[in-house]
Amino acid sequence: MSHPTTIKAEAKSLLILGLPLIGSQVAQFAVHTTDTLMLGWYSVDALAQSALGAQVYFIAFVLGSGFAWAILPMVAKAAEEQDWQSVRRTTRMGLWTSTIAFAVMMVPMWYSEPILLALGQQPDVAAGAQVYLRIAGWGLLPFLWASVLRSYLSALERTGIVFWVSIGTLLANAAVNAVLIFGLFGAPELGLRGAAIASLTVAVLSFIGFAIYTAKVFPDHDMFRRFWKADWQAIWTVTLLALPISGTALAESGLFAAATLMMGAIGKVEIAAGGIVIQPAALAFMFHMGLSQAATIHAGYALSRKDRAALNRTAVASCLVSAGFAILVVILFVSYPAEIVGLFLDPDDPDALAVVALGVTLMFTAAAFQFVDAAQVLGLGILRGLQDTAIPMVLAVVSYWGIGAPVAYWLALPMEYGAVGVWIGLVAGLTAAAVLLWWRYALIQARFGGLTPPQRPQQP
After folding, report:
1. Contact of 293 with 154, CB cutoff 8 Å
2. Going along 118-205, which residue ranges are E strands?
3. For the whole model, what pTM was predicted?
4. In this predicted model, what pLDDT tens digit does every residue of 216-266 receive, in sequence order?
5. CA 195, CA 132: separation in Å to the nearest integer?
6. Distance between CA 379 and CA 318 in Å, rounded?
């Protein structure tokens, strides 16, 4: 495999590998954006309930997705070394560990209403969130399986199929949503339940798409042969790398979940406005997430070769590409905030004007954290490629919960800045994470030539 030798060539290589991943991240997130858009036109109540339920679902997903993230650098490094046995073993046990994660996460999703009530949410919103989760929650298992296969295929640079499966599921979600939320073509009008059924449907379709492709294109990997046979040594290796990744993801998503809960405690308009603004902000973040995954793969290659120069090119090129995109997003957010927020609402809804007014202010805050949000996810991606996950988890927890959450709470409630205070807290947490993670990278880069990567499990 040839490798870029200049920053310009590295940026081009990252984009070639990363654009399908970016597209798939956008399509994957757009599934939820479609839910928000259609439910916002259905009713503000349904929008608030789905925003809360989707936040709980997302926390469950990020806890389980650490296993899929762990697969990415491990498969990339093993593939660079032509070690196909390790590729197969780590991927299959990633599917196993994801199944265990689902079994654990489904319980709090099923009984989410009393948990949300204890966290101060309004009774009608909490009840609706549980209705949503008791349907959509079953889709977590196929979604986690799809994420593992997605990482496996991405590490093997088969990113085209990742993109096309994501586009297919997005279109399927939009179609099922339209039919079941609004009761088109004689179907029952299910509202919130219709959106949940659509989410479950696309999760199943996504896994089926990846599984069929894997079986046809890589039959020699025998990915699903004797799938029931446990490989405990591989499970342990994957778990050791995955748990800190899950902890890091939980720290970040937990910060945004806490922000949602704070908004919900303030009022329905606040949680609806926050649920809308997070859509374009997170949609823009998907670009940086996809680029981060490409950087993870390239860092994994550099780790295999102990190539410090290649690692530096990956870091510099990914930051330059990410910064260029962030500039475009900031211009868009500050130029058309009302128009963006208004896309998600029926103008005749009695709460629409209040939601738009608050949403415009939050759009400016969302623009403020574009650069730091991009920097922190790129830092995480490169560190994961180097299979460094434990210390980044500690840094993430300190940033998001030692800085971001307290600042958000203090500004929102004691200082009475409300929703704006919550989002300023998000900016503070993301900024701290970006600084600390890149400090960690600088330390590792200084001694990179002497690193010894974690050993892959040997065949029992």
Report:
1. yes
2. none
3. 0.73
4. 888 887 777 777 777 777 778 788 877 888 888 878 777 877 887 787 777
5. 8
6. 10
